[in-house]
Write a structure and sequence with these properties.
This protein has 7 helices and 5 strands. The protein is an alpha+beta fold. Helix 1 runs antiparallel to helix 2 and helix 2 packs antiparallel against helix 4.
Length: 289
């Protein structure tokens, strides 16, 4: 009887031990599956962001290609007219000096227009490449932050970085939080590698009336928040102050409806706008004498 009792007790211990081992293995596999799902979600989010950026560039490129096609049609028209004139002149025994000079200038103008179109194509391709590289560098530097808190996009050739105010400031305040300093430091690291870039920092609010301390309204709050960001980028991260502009937009440029809590949250943001280099663009459009 004692022997039987000992055998049953041993079998119970073996079964209990096996159950514990299986439970630990199951939990380990469950944890690993959860980690893989999180990694997959992050990769999917980054892929979606890149797809959105690529679609934006595709639309811009289609518009620019249409402009180029129009210019090429004009060039073809001028070339056809020029060839017609030359064919007519072949039948003339003599042409005057003024006529010869006019023909020469027409040919030179056509050549300059061809060169202009070629330069425009190269400039647009270079600008698009630089914008795409900048967006990818910013996304890589900022990393796995929530897309609802930090949004980087390109619209009509301009790069925008939107950061929700809950990441930068406490409610009703323009003092930058410690978390905000980390995020802005990552942005500054990328922008410092592009010394010729100029940008504007815009403060935005929702439409809830505001008045606190020295702040009179949402105009004051939005401007103070913009200058706080600019000041930090200058003093802590060494950004060139001559390349920065601070602006307050108050509640008047919303990205969502203020009728919902989510909409108000989206509208309370700080936007960094990478400004296009208009001086170079205008130089490109100058008429060569």
């Amino acid at each position: 009887m004692k022997t039987r009792t000992l055998v049953l007790a041993g079998m119970a211990l073996v079964m209990f031990g096996t159950s514990c081992v299986s439970s630990r293995k199951f939990k380990a596999q469950t944890d690993r599956l959860e980690s893989l799902n999180q990694s997959f979600s992050k990769a999917q989010s980054e892929l979606n962001a890149c797809e959105n950026a690529r679609n934006g560039y595709k639309t811009q490129i289609e518009g620019l290609n249409k402009q180029i096609d129009d210019l090429n049609k004009q060039v073809d028209y001028f070339k056809a007219n020029n060839n017609q004139v030359l064919n007519q002149l072949e039948n003339l025994a003599v042409i005057s000096g003024s006529q010869a000079e006019s023909i020469k200038k027409s040919i030179e103008n056509i050549g300059r227009k061809d060169a202009y179109i070629y330069g425009l194509q190269n400039s647009m391709a270079q600008k698009d490449s630089l914008n795409m590289a900048l967006v990818l560098n910013l996304k890589g530097a900022i990393g796995n932050l929530n897309d609802k808190d930090v949004n980087i996009k390109v619209d009509k050739g301009v790069v925008y970085i939107d950061i929700s105010d809950k990441m930068l400031f406490k409610s009703g305040s323009y003092e930058i939080t410690e978390q905000a300093s980390t995020v802005l430091g990552k942005v500054a690291k990328v922008l410092l590698n592009q010394p010729n870039i100029e940008f504007m920092v815009e403060g935005h609010t929702d439409n809830v009336a505001f008045r606190k301390g020295d702040l009179q309204d949402n105009w004051d709050l939005s401007v103070k928040r913009a200058t706080s960001v600019v000041r930090l980028l200058q003093t802590k991260y060494g950004m060139d102050p001559s390349k920065m502009t601070a602006a307050g937009r108050s509640e008047y440029l919303p990205v969502s409806s203020n009728e919902t809590t989510e909409g108000k949250s989206a509208n309370r943001r700080t936007r960094i706008v990478i400004l296009p280099q208009l001086d170079q663009f205008f130089k490109l459009l100058e008429t060569k004498q």
